[in-house]
Amino acid sequence: MTASHGWMLSLGVFVLPSLSVPVDVSSPFLGINYGDLMAKSIGEGCTQNITQTPDEQTRDGFLARLATDDAPACLTTSMALTVVKEEGFRHLKVFEEKLGLDESFFSPLDAGDLVLTRVSEVFRDADDAAHVWLQLPNGFLKHIRDNSSYAHDIIALIKEHDDIVDVVILGNEPFLFPEAAKDEFLPAYGVFKEAASQAQLDAHLTTVLANSVIQNTFPSIDAAEMVPSYLELLEPFLTDLRASSSPVMVNIFPWFAFSGAPVEVGLPYALGYRDPPIEVDGRNYTFIWDAQYDAVVTALDKAGFGDLPLVIGETSWPSDGDNPVYVNKTTAHIHYASVKKRVLMDIGTPKYPGRQIPVFYFIAFDRMNATSYGFPPVEQYLGLHSEEGVAKFDIGSVAEWGEGDEQVIPHMPNNSLAI
Ligand SMILES: *[C@@H]1O[C@H](CO)[C@@H](O)[C@H](O)[C@H]1NC(C)=O
Ligand SMILES: *[C@@H]1O[C@H](CO)[C@@H](O)[C@H](O)[C@H]1NC(C)=O
Ligand SMILES: *[C@@H]1O[C@H](CO)[C@@H](O)[C@H](O)[C@H]1NC(C)=O
Ligand SMILES: *[C@@H]1O[C@H](CO)[C@@H](O)[C@H](O)[C@H]1NC(C)=O
Ligand SMILES: *[C@@H]1O[C@H](CO)[C@@H](O)[C@H](O)[C@H]1NC(C)=O
Ligand SMILES: *[C@@H]1O[C@H](CO)[C@@H](O)[C@H](O)[C@H]1NC(C)=O
């Protein structure tokens, strides 16, 4: 749904050679997307908080949230990572959409090495280890397809950081368009898988499926199914995921469902506190997120892949935007708390009660340079923090359910947020 960022995986019968990295996708976790942090030209406005040499500063700044004109505070990569570490995040989905092979002034591999090194440093003293899910941008796929050395170089980098990299995500929603999936993702996955096998890479490979691969999700969730033409493409890949005990991922954005039909969906259902619930297939739904999740699991299940661990790669609600409608820090906070409740309280969804649901929030920091795909534009304001690293609301600790979380979810039926 949002900008495509990411990396991915492959086809054919493929069993990863060893699975010594404990990728626990069976227990739920709340992680965070971290990346796309290239807001300003390097060094611009950075007048304080800099302890590195100019060269280090330049390199660090490349992936850091840099200063804006009116707020010349500099958040380096280490400082940005410290912010999310202190909030209890241990799972980081790291991506950098703009890390094109041709456009960067230092190579994507150097940049990847830099951010992974910083993660190791910052999380060294944390009570739990960091778990990085490294997402390769869609722009990498054709390069990997065309030149296996590139796959080998990426894998060599990951192996240098194999204590923190649990999963490599090839691309973001590469199945959005069947031609791109066929021409770029599947061949790139084949090349990468082979290189990973040769190198005995421990990290799991996966990708993020797009909602376009499922159909018939409304008005009945039970009728949801994979689009047959996509299923044909996906089947060998999903079979690989099962063989290697790897998860499959999707993104869930109630905001887009709501903004397309605000009156029909209604804010309470979009944010997770509808009262009375909507009855679908004899089950009561209070949160459209649950319905979106259940439709995906139903479709995977019908195709014979309901047993794959399903991880939500992105979920978000904007806090601002041009011509804002129903977007502010309060509605954003309610969204994250409703999702957090499902993840931490093991309540699952109406169709799959008790099911454990790992989720990555989208995204750690606002990105004022992000391209907006939604209308009105909101893509820039999906961060839990401003570009300067200031939390937009009381995030509390993502490791536990707190009073602040409880309070933000409206209890009163038909309260002032309802439309
Ligand atoms: C971000 O946007 C600003 C303002 O449009 C522009 O000057 C700057 O070059 C952009 N930075 C990047 C890294 O694209
Ligand atoms: C940056 O430096 C200023 C002044 O030295 C300090 O007040 C501020 O807390 C620092 N910011 C961060 C994020 O460390
Ligand atoms: C393939 O990529 C490697 C770097 O990984 C590069 O040295 C080599 O020139 C590339 N080969 C071609 C044919 O582009
Ligand atoms: C759904 O909720 C309504 C109350 O709004 C209740 O009457 C009904 O029994 C519930 N249905 C199920 C299947 O739980
Ligand atoms: C946030 O948006 C909701 C829905 O439009 C509105 O009811 C609420 O007053 C807004 N809150 C703030 C602080 O603007
Ligand atoms: C909330 O409002 C709807 C629509 O006006 C109404 O049907 C419903 O009974 C109300 N719910 C409660 C719990 O008052």
What is the compact description of this entry?
This is Glucan endo-1,3-beta-D-glucosidase. GO terms for molecular function: hydrolase activity, hydrolyzing O-glycosyl compounds. 50% of the residues are buried.
SSE order and pairing:
Layout: E1 30-35, H1 54-62, H2 77-86, E2 91-95, H3 108-122, E3 131-136, H4 141-146, H5 148-160, E4 165-172, H6 178-198, E5 204-209, E6 214-215, E7 225-226, H7 228-243, E8 248-251, H8 254-260, H9 262-265, H10 267-271, E9 278-280, E10 283-285, H11 288-302, E11 310-314, H12 329-344, E12 359-361, H13 403-408
Parallel strand pairs: 1-2, 1-12, 2-3, 3-4, 4-5, 5-8, 8-11
Antiparallel strand pairs: 6-7, 9-10
Helix pairs in contact: 2-3, 5-6, 6-7
Residues 275-276, 413-414 line the site of one 2-acetamido-2-deoxy-beta-D-glucopyranose.
Organism: Vitrella brassicaformis (strain CCMP3155)
GO molecular function: hydrolase activity, hydrolyzing O-glycosyl compounds
Keywords: Hydrolase, Signal
